[in-house]
């Protein structure tokens, strides 16, 4: 289709899918969706030393989990090497490139000299104007050569308008005649990347800001081939709170997409968070459905300034950017429970907490309980960790809660079994009856209501915070609550 918008995500499979890369993928995907275009996935695997299949698998897996699905691909760059070479040879035959016989040793020495003289080194174009005969002679001697792109000489410059960073200008004289084919005939990345974009008919190159330095040279390749370059849109970098680029080495797994799956993120919540790293609407809206986001997203809304991943390593309170957690919490607290259950079921199964009756006779109870406890949770994992007491008789008691609410009040072990008996006599297991029974008990015993209420909560749910106590007691169920109160003594051991 003519005029079709075609964008691509082109990761190098040299590690896991990083949140910065994932964000670039999301921006490309959104742009394609918005314009009814195509989103192409290209795996740039030509660095054979660093690329691994496991990494490719991880990238595909991460994108699938996020729901960022591609329309074409994955195309492996390594399958296209012959095409890259062909273009290099075409540039050679049209005089836009030339054979350079300078030896590595010679170049190193010249580079070294420049360094000593404190000037920037740029290839001197030694081989630019070799005559046919000179070239033949060198070739006949079997001298190895690389192919260099011939940057136009003279006053001109490459000028292009980046959608995010605006007008960029690079003078020809500041661009070295760059190598496009190595002496073994293999193409260099800069060329391969541009040729693949040409072959994939990419209309918009949306990539990380670190690609900006390559753009003038790539535009020269387009121009030499007589092809209109795509629109370029470079995305700001993602930095940490110390303004350093985020990386696995410095930040660990918190920058990997997979980490968020393990920690109990809803995939769309992570997409929503990633999008806001470097893009916003004029009213700074934070939560978007898929359709709303596709509708609202524009490349012009991407900010020039680097975005901050607000994560402080070692902060015990937050294992990631608090905003990521709060967005995830918003989703899991507001989505229809049935939808949430789709995510929860595998987690419950893994934790040994799943019972098929949650989908049949106990469906209403399960849904009600999930709805009740979610109001304080931030991740899906919270349901099976913090919420274990709702679904199992074996659950951990939070240490701080136990210290504060149980151990400090030794008399609770004597009165809770009495309260258990009293609750056993509750005519109906309903919030109003439960509340009346407990309040009456507190009054009779002249107890401090706070102490009793916090104590019950900890004994029955293992936590110091949670939903309203009487609702909590109702859903946990009569038998379980009575059993737990009777056994309060065990918490003192
Ligand atoms: N393979 C490059 C990277 O992972 C992509 C550069 C581009 O998108 O043009 O950084």
Shape: elongated
**Count of runs of 4 or more consecutive helical residues:** 21
CATH topology description of the largest domain: Rossmann fold
The CATH superfamily title of the largest domain = HUPs
Helix content: 40-55%
N- to C-terminal separation?
Answer: 74 Å
Order of strands across the widest beta sheet? 1-2-3
Please provide the count of β strands: 12
On the 0-100 scale, what is the average pLDDT?
96
- Show unreliable segments: none
Kindly name the structural category. mainly alpha
**Which ligands occur here?**
glutamic acid
Strand content: 5-15%
Instruction: Give the total of domains.
Output: 4
**How would a textbook summarize the main sheet?**
3 strands, parallel
Question: Which architecture of the largest domain does the CATH hierarchy give at level 2?
Answer: 3-Layer(aba) Sandwich
Q: Supply Rg.
A: 32 Å
User: Any idea of the CATH class of the largest domain?
Assistant: Alpha Beta
Describe the structure.
With 493 residues, this protein is mainly α. It folds into four domains: 6-70 and 238-308, 3-Layer(aba) Sandwich (Rossmann fold); 81-235, HUPs (Rossmann fold, 3-Layer(aba) Sandwich), CATH 3.40.50.620; 336-390, Orthogonal Bundle (Helicase, Ruva Protein, domain 3), CATH 1.10.8; 399-492, Arc Repressor Mutant, subunit A, CATH 1.10.10.350. Helices cover 45% and strands 11% of the residues. The protein contains 21 helices and twelve strands. It has helices spanning 19-34, 53-66, 81-93, 104-116, 132-140, 189-199, 215-225, 248-251, 257-262, 267-275, 290-296, 322-334, 337-350, 363-373, 380-385, 399-407, 412-424, 431-444, 449-461, 469-476, 478-486, and strands at 6-9, 38-43, 72-76, 97-100, 146-149, 157-162, 166-171, 179-181, 204-208, 231-235, 238-239, 307-308. The chain has a three-stranded parallel sheet with strand order 1-2-3. Helix 2 links the parallel strand 2 and strand 3. Helix 10 crosses helix 12 (322-334) and helix 14 (363-373) runs antiparallel to helix 20. It is elongated and about 110 Å long. The N and C termini lie far apart (74 Å). It binds glutamic acid. Glutamic acid binds at residues 10-12, 44, 193, 207, 211.
């Amino acid at each position: 289709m003519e005029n079709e918008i075609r964008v691509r995500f082109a990761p190098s499979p040299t590690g896991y899918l990083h949140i910065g890369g994932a964000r670039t993928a999301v921006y490309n995907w959104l742009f394609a969706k918005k314009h009814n275009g195509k989103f192409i996935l290209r795996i740039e695997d030509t660095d054979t030393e660093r690329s691994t299949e496991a990494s490719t698998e991880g990238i595909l897996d991460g994108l699938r989990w996020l729901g960022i699905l591609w329309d074409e691909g994955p195309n492996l760059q390594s399958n296209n090497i012959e095409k890259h070479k062909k273009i290099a040879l075409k540039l050679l035959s049209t005089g836009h490139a030339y054979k350079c016989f300078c030896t590595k040793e010679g170049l190193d020495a010249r580079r070294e000299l420049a360094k000593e003289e404190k000037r920037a080194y740029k290839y001197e174009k030694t081989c630019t104007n070799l005559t046919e005969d000179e070239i033949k002679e060198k070739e006949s001697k079997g001298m190895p050569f690389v192919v260099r792109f011939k940057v136009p000489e003279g006053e001109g410059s490459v000028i292009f308008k980046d959608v995010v960073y605006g007008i960029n200008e690079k003078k020809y004289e500041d661009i070295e005649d760059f190598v496009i084919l190595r002496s073994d005939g293999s193409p260099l990345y800069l060329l391969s990347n541009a040729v693949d974009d040409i072959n994939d008919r990419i209309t918009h190159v949306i990539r990380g800001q670190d690609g900006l330095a390559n753009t003038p040279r790539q535009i020269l390749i387009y121009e030499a081939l007589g092809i209109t370059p795509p629109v370029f849109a470079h995305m700001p970098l993602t930095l940490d709170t110390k303004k350093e680029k985020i990386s696995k080495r410095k930040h660990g797994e918190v920058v990997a997409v997979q980490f968020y799956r393990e920690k109990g993120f809803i995939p769309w919540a992570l997409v929503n968070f990633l999008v806001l790293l470097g893009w916003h609407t004029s009213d700074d809206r934070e939560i978007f459905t898929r359709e709303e986001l596709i509708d609202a997203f524009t490349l012009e809304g991407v900010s020039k300034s680097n975005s901050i991943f607000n994560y402080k390593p070692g902060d015990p309170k937050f294992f990631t950017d608090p905003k990521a957690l709060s967005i995830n919490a918003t989703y899991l607290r507001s989505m229809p429970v049935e939808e949430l259950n789709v995510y929860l079921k595998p987690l419950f199964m893994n934790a040994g907490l799943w019972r098929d009756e949650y989908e049949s006779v106990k469906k209403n109870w399960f849904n009600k309980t999930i709805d009740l406890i979610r109001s304080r949770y931030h991740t899906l994992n919270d349901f099976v960790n913090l919420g274990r007491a709702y679904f199992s008789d074996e659950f951990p008691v939070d240490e701080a809660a136990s210290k504060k609410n149980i151990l400090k009040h030794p008399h609770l072990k004597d009165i809770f079994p009495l309260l258990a008996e009293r609750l056993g006599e509750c005519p109906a297991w309903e919030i109003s009856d439960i509340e009346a029974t407990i309040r009456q008990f507190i009054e009779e015993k002249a107890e401090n209501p706070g102490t009793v209420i916090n104590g019950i909560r900890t004994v029955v749910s293992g936590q110091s915070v949670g939903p309203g106590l009487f609702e909590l007691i109702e859903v946990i169920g009569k038998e379980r609550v009575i059993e737990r109160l009777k056994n309060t003594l065990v918490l003192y051991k």
